[in-house]
């Protein structure tokens, strides 16, 4: 259950990052509200996961899910550049997440 909570926190990080971009610096109300609510919900779920997981594991997984997810979503939704260096970088992050999960006690 703790890993589901952590993945949900990471997915909400993607939501708030995308909403933050769409808010244009908090000048658009609806994306701004989505960003703020997403931030709060993401951090609350992260804190719940940290009850059982080491802080390093939880934080790395949370930021990694958010970073790779935001990269993929940015490419799909905003037409951001895809090049070999960016794909390799995302792949390295995913590799790190897998290693962190394997090395985690829970």
UniProtKB/TrEMBL annotation:
Q: Which SUPFAM superfamilies match?
A: Multidrug resistance efflux transporter EmrE (SSF103481)
Q: Which GO terms describe its molecular function?
A: transmembrane transporter activity
Any GO BP annotation = xenobiotic detoxification by transmembrane export across the plasma membrane
Cellular component GO terms, alphabetical: plasma membrane
How is it placed in the membrane, per its record? Multi-pass membrane protein
Q: In which broad location class does this protein mainly occur, judging by the first location in its UniProt entry?
A: membrane
**Membrane spanning stretches:** 33-50, 57-78, 84-103
Cellular compartments annotated: Cell membrane
Key words of the record: Cell membrane, Membrane, Transmembrane, Transmembrane helix, Transport
The question of whether Nucleotide-binding is a record keyword is answered with: no
Q: Does the keyword Transmembrane helix apply?
A: yes
What is the similarity comment for this entry? Belongs to the drug/metabolite transporter (DMT) superfamily. Small multidrug resistance (SMR) (TC 2.A.7.1) family. Gdx/SugE subfamily.
User: Cross-referenced PANTHER family, in alphabetical order?
Assistant: GUANIDINIUM EXPORTER, SMR FAMILY PROTON-DEPENDENT DRUG EFFLUX TRANSPORTER SUGE
Q: What is this protein called?
A: Guanidinium exporter
Q: Which organism is it from?
A: Undibacter mobilis
